[in-house]
Sequence to fold (332 residues):
Amino acid sequence: MGCCEIIQHHYSTIYLNVSKPLVPVARDGRGTVKPINDLDLPILMAPRGFCDPSENSQNPSELVVLIKSCVRCRKDRYWTRETLMQPHLWSDFRVRFVFVTGIPSVNYTGNIHFEGVSVNHRSHGNEKQDYVSTKGELLSEANQFGDMLIGDFEDHYFSLTLKQTFIFRWISAFCAHESQLFLFLDHDYTVIPTNLIRFVRGLPAEILPELSFGIPGQNHLVVRPQQKSNNRWAISEDEFPWDYYPAYFGGHSYVKGINVVTDLAIASAFVHPLRVEDAYMGILRYKLQIQTYVVRKFVHRVQSAEELQSTIIGNSWYIHKFFNWKIGQIIQ
Fold:
């Protein structure tokens, strides 16, 4: 299919109570079905200078990049500001960047009990008990740079689904006039600017609002809890009773048009959440009958400068070895 390839996956069981006809009804405010997951997600800090519905943008962005950051990922954010976000890399391409995070966890130990299973996982210092100072540093950074979206929810590995729902709702409420296209990145992934510009500008304008593609998910088989194992992706039958997930993107990087984002924001209020974020996004897309495409130039690893020539998105560690950010060129 040219730039993209469709993923097909058999998944016959309906997961709770949302379907495509519900979305336009909900957009119009005439819905009669009550939400089951309509959480209050206050915004503590928002980026400055764009995604303001009170201002009708005369020069909308061609792309908004949302980087799923974390409370203590400060070094990653500074690295991104000094590399990917440098204006000279983007020429006349209109792009905006947003780091998204929650707030420090309180009394988080890494041990969490879900329906039918207990899981232990620590990451990025979330178990540290320095709530007041860390939150202060986070808000100070947001004030200094004006490029952060901070939600009033505890930020840790098992709140990724909540974070993604928060992002979708913010975009649908505040960014509909800012851009037709949105790129979602994990904090340890980056892009090759020239390749991304070429790719985005090669897409027909009329299809941008309905686009949905990314890196293919690693495995559709649902991992079940095992004794003497602490697999963070293990899901009990109480959480998800079926053996396979519908087709989904790896959560590392994916692109969505504004109409898709809005539909997902609405649908998330009517579908029971699942803590495996990328699989949950696949469930929402399946329920809304949104086709799932992959772009082979979105990758996890890059092994050579030659391979980087055609890469659009990849893991920062690999790309950094072969790319000179100061001049925006691949190192030969």
Q: What stands out?
A: Residues 1-19 have pLDDT under 50 and may be disordered. The radius of gyration is 20 Å. The longest helix spans residues 131-145. The chain has nine helices and 15 strands.
